[in-house]
Design brief:
Layout (H helix, E strand, L loop, with lengths): L5 H12 L5 E5 L2 H8 L1 H12 L10 H12 L4 E5 L5 H8 L10 E4 L4 H6 L13 H12 L8 H14 L3 H11 L4 H11 L5 H12 L3 H14 L4 H10 L4 H10 L4 E2 L6 E2 L2 H12 L11 E2 L2 H10 L8 E4 L1 H4 L19 E4 L1
Parallel strand pairs: 1-2, 2-3, 6-7, 7-8
Antiparallel strand pairs: 4-5
Helix pairs in contact: 2-3, 3-4, 3-5, 4-5, 7-8, 7-9, 8-10, 12-14, 12-15
Amino acid sequence: MGGISKTTLARVAYTQMSPHFEGTSFIDDIREVSNKCGLVFLQKQFLSQIFHDEFFNFFNVHEGNAIINHRLSHKKVLVVLDDVDNLQHLKCLVGRRDWFELGSRIIITTRDEHLLRCCQVDNVFMPTTLTIGYALQLFNLKAFHGDTAPEVDFIELSHHVVNYAGGLPLALEILGSFLCGRDATQWRSVIERLKRDSNKEIFDTLQISFDRLEEREKNIFLDVACFFNGEKKDFVMKVLDGCEFFPDIGIDVLIKKSLIKVDKHKKYLRMHNLLQEMGRKIVIEKCIDEPGKRCRLWEETDIHHILTKNTATEMIEGMLIDNKRLERMPFKIVAFKLPTRQPCCTSFTI
């Protein structure tokens, strides 16, 4: 999950541990740098950070691998690889353990736990969202510069913002910095706006993980966000299996990427409230003005609209319907053709 402070924690560890090593390297934003500049550029950056006064001139990954192995096999180094999302990143930079002197340490941050398991790393640390106390501390640090206690007018408002952030450090920092220096009236306006419009900077970071998913995993993510957050895992698996989404592997992929989680009793699926909001926003933005052209419907007003106005289209794949509430609504019975090109189209009743 993005915004959970993986890079911040790695930076702290790097700063504290660096004096104990002969060479150090911290490579930021590997995913983005690799996409823009390529793997050879990453290898040269890696070597240049350890051997400051040297220039490395090679033109392919295999040459780079040979140089890294030769130059570092007798040097105790500390290496941090930030935001790795591809096994090739690790193969080209830290290919095998015998490339490095005994006592070297390699720290990897990634949104994909499965990638770490493939590399047989020694230890995996999973950062979690902050508890309410620590979340308030971080938020106050950004909103009030940390050196002054919030005035009485802001205490309750601060709790509203912290509850919205759900303990996600990125959200706390962005919202705290944005609200810093603004008066209580402006705070209330921001809180009300967040109920309707999501913060773009927060959601852009969260959506990176969604954009990397395969199509079936994207569908599962959106179904959980729109219909199944907090539902029993067995029930969700049956529905998704009927849609031919292969949920046994798909759910596991989402868990490994920290996009959903299972409760400690392994019975219920949970999704962070900001991830759920992001997923629903993705669906809504496909067609803001006409609910009947969206793939999923969960809001009572939208469902009532398409049923009374007969505006349903083949785009609709699923609806969440509260039968008891709909029974009290005056609408005529309508029918619409289910799309044959979609794996399934279901109305989920509660």
